[in-house]
Amino acid sequence: MARNSNEEPNGDSNVDHRQQRPVFRRVGFYMPFMILLGIALPSFVFLIMMQINGWKLPLIGLQNMVARMAPSSSNVILYASPTSKAYFATIGGNYDTLLNPWRSYFKDRSIQAVELNTPAELNKQSRGVLIVPSALALNDQERDAILSFKAKGGGVLATWATGTRNGSGDWAGWQLIEALGAKVVGELPADSEARQLTLTGESPLSFQQPAGTRIWMGKTTESLLRLTGESVAARFMDWQRVLDENRRNEGAIVFSETTPDSGRAVVFAFAETNWESRPFAPRQLIDDTLKWLQRQPSIVRSAWPNGKIAAQVIEMDTEQGFQNASAFASMMKSIDYRATFYVLTSVATQFPELLRALAKDFEIGYHGDVHVSFKDQPAYTQEQRIVNMKAELASVLADTSTITGFRAPTEGYDTTTEIALQKHGIRHHAADPSRLEGRLPALVKMDGVAVEDSLVVLARTQRDDINLNHEKLDIDQTTKALNDDFDLALETGSLGFLSVHSQNFEEGSVLRSAMPAFLEHVQKKKNNVWLSSSGQIAQWWRDRERVSISSSVAGKRLDFNLTVKGNLPINGMTLTIMLPQKGVLPTVRSTKVGTYVPRIAKLDDYRAVVIFDNMKPGDYVYQASF
To answer: 42 pLDDT band (50/70/90 cuts)?
Structure first.
């Protein structure tokens, strides 16, 4: 029987004709969209995953869905107050003198700052950072606009005596400064030598500069103010970095964050004219300050291991009165501290038993062969002296291979000395307070010398017994001076380095009587201070130098990469993170599977530390989420 021409070849007339069409014909109109989706979706997922793993992506998509997010706000506003401009003109001044350093800074940093000069314009702004430079005279509308900006979440940086006069130029007091979190307690006398702006180490406002860095403020007609506030990023000190007793709780830069919703505030106790002639270090200080005001997280290598805030060395220059080293050693043992004894070798060899006892329990270093300065002596003479001192100790001690520290007699040395020390296996030397600009150790860079073998300089940072004797202090006063110097090192994140002379440690001496109370004070704060020998400090500084770090901000995420060079692991490596939100710790994770996850600890309300118990050489990638 013949088939009907309308029937399907298989004879099943109920089958849908569309099911027999080729796949591409059945998809029809939707096929291009499905192809695009098949390509786009995996690509989108890939980009998301790679961004999570540290890639920096271009700005694409709706509201930059896969883009690197911008900081909280990069809006920087310079407020050029017309009221202040008019006031300065009445007293023969020019307000542009105070504005121009900021304009130069913006140009140097390629910052597209907005310069405003009316409160109405300022009221239109929200978020970002507002800089109010030494605006002495402000009317009520300007004051309200500044405080309103902060209340809306914007950061405010005010300098010098901003707002101390009203719209008519009459005295108005310090109310605006106080509203920004600072209290003015006076001015430094015009003849004061305490004109070194001395920075706190790893402060949220000064983390690019080493602890104790000095910035000369110059002597200008604009006075230096004395401030107190919630947190201190810098203090006014003299060249020796001794803080006046009456100003221990004061600061030259103070900062605060009152509530999570309102903006942050910073007050500089000095005018722009105090730093414009030497702008390098101040500009780095401003860089850090603006980042903090913008709530941009930052991360740096910490100065000290295992989350410690500061470090302390207590050492004895052991020369005349060598026998007094025994009493000093007993005190150090009482706090379980391995102190350093720099021994004058020509004297030390006269007390072989005591020298051996010291070498058993403490670190031994060289104090030269005789008590004569090395400075300006010919290179051959200096080298011969180093050879002599090493030979003298080797005649008493069985093993001198671990004796690699040096302290020049009378703190007298020069570049020739440092080259000779490096050549003859010395790996650190304790120097005078003026050797370094900061109060941290430093590596001496020499051609052909690897980091692992570098000579490390440890500058004396505390008043020694000779300084204190000149001040004619009694026992209680000496204890207080020792405590104050120690506390200052702790507060600034510095290396505290106390030198004691054996000849001034005899029984009944003021120093010997004051020492036990000082050591008790140190013990109370040992959780925050690394009490270490000179050699341990030097070795840590070489280890620390083997670690490099790079970072970038991606919205509420901080990506950071670490590289550990060399052949040996590093124990206790610590990083300091400046927090974008007061008291809120980040979550830190590695983007490499199986990588060690570090410990996170709160340092204070504005900083956290990331602690690596053990880091082997290699590359590491981490993210901190806030």
So the answer is: low
Give yes or no for a contact between 313 and 495, defined as CB atoms under 8 angstroms apart.
yes
pLDDT at position 74, please?
A: 77
Give the single-character DSSP code of 163: T
- Give the residue among 113, 109, 115, 107 at the shortest CA–CA distance from 75: 113
Residue type at 107?
K
Nearest to 604 by CA among 578, 622, 571: 578
The string of DSSP letters for 114-129 reads EEE-SHHHHHT--SSE
The model's pLDDT over 164-193, given as tens digits with 9 standing for 90+, comes to 999 999 999 999 999 999 999 999 999 999
- Whether residue 73 contacts residue 581, with contact meaning beta carbons closer than 8 Å, is answered with no
Integer Cα distance of 363 and 345 in angstroms: 15
CB contact set of 529 (below 8 Å; sequence gap of 6+): 308, 309, 310, 311, 312, 490, 496, 522
Instruction: State the pLDDT at residue 220.
Output: 84
Residues 6+ apart with CB under 8 A from 612: 570, 572, 573, 574, 596, 598
Report pLDDT digits (tens) over 333-343: 999 999 999 99
Q: Tens digits of per-residue pLDDT, 350-395?
A: 999 999 999 999 999 999 999 999 999 999 999 999 999 999 999 9
- Looking at residue 604, its amino acid is D
Q: For the purposes of burial, counting CB atoms within 10 Å of the CB of 233, is it exposed (0-12), middle (13-18) or buried (19 or more)?
A: buried
Q: What domains can you pick out in the chain, each with its CATH number? A: 1-68 (no CATH), 76-296 (3.40.50.880), 310-540 (3.20.20.370), 546-625 (2.60.40.1170)
Mean pLDDT of 83-88: 98
Residue 380's contacts (CB-CB under 8 Å, 6 or more residues apart) are none
Using DSSP's 3-state secondary structure scheme, residue 199 falls into strand
Hey, is 265 helix, strand or coil?
A: strand
Query: Which H or E element spans position 96?
Result: helix 96-109
Q: Using CA atoms, how far apart are residues 373 and 417, in angstroms rounded to an integer?
A: 10
Neighbours of 142 (CB within 10 A): 25
Where does 122-252 show beta strands of DSSP type E? 129-132, 155-159, 182-187, 196-199, 214-216, 225-229, 231-237
282-283-288-289 Cα dihedral, nearest 10 degrees? 70
Element of type H or E holding 419: helix 415-423
CA atoms within 13 A on the CB side of 20: 9
Contacts with 582 (C-beta within 8 Å, 6 or more apart), sequence order: 257, 260, 605, 606
- What percent of the chain is modeled with pLDDT above 70? 88
Position of tokens 């900061």? 438
Residues 6+ apart with CB under 8 A from 8: 15, 20
Backbone conformation region of residue 289, classed left if phi is above 0, alpha if psi is from -120 to 50, else beta: alpha
Which residues have a Cβ under 8 Å from the Cβ of 299 and sit 6 or more positions away? 549, 551, 558, 560, 575, 576, 577, 578, 610, 624
Can you say whether the dihedral through the CA atoms of 242, 247, 252, 257 is positive or negative?
positive
